Every structure is written in structure tokens, then in C-alpha cells.
Amino acid sequence: MRIALPHDLGKDEVRRRLKERSHEIADHIPGGMASVDTEWQGDDLMRLSVNAMGQSITGDIEVFDSELVFQIALPPALSFVRPMIEGAIRSSGQKMLTKS
pTM of the full predicted structure? Predict the structure, then answer.
């Protein structure tokens, strides 16, 4: 699943906000029982691993000049929640970008 969030902040500012707020990602996952691990792979790519309700989801967040792109590997067992996950990423991702 690919989700792009446009921005006009510049790469440096987006990276700064993501690095400062990556610990908040779990707060945006419903149920309050998620654990999230992040790891930067260079300047513009953050690897993401989310564990919740016995399921594991991995993905990448890549910073581009005018958009932030989430690539999420959704297991087949969770394909039915794709619209909900996409909506949460769009909503929460925009909130993380708009906070200064």
C-alpha cells in the first residue's frame, strides 16, 4: 500500500519533525496496545515496524521534496482494514507534519 502526503516544508524540516515525533506514531494507532520501532536508513528513509493485536506490519516512510510517502506491507489477513489504515495514516501523518 502506497500513501503520499504532500508538503511544502522542505526535506530538512520534514526530517526534523519525523525524528522529533517518531515516538508519537504508536499514539495514533487505535486500541493503545501497539508497539512501534523506527530506524533511519540514511537521510530520507525511515523503516517502520508496528506490532498490534498479534499482527506485525512493516513499511517505509520516505521523504521527498514535496511529499512524504508511506509504503506499507499489509499482511493478507489485514487486507480488510486497508481503508481504515490508509485513513489513519493520512490523518495522523498530516497532523505530525503540521505541528511545529
Answer: 0.85
What gap in Å lies between CA 60 and CA 45, rounded to an integer? 7
Alpha carbon of residue 23 to chain centroid: 11
Q: Which of 80, 64, 75 is nearest to 3 (CA)?
A: 64
Q: What is the CATH number of domain 2-98?
A: 3.30.310
**Separation of alpha carbons 22 and 36, rounded Å:** 9
pLDDT digits (tens, 9 = 90+) for 24-50: 887 777 666 778 899 999 999 999 998
The C-alpha cell at 72 is: 506499507
Domain boundaries, the chain: 2-98
| Type of residue found at 78 | L
**Cβ atoms of residues 8 and 66 within 8 Å:** yes
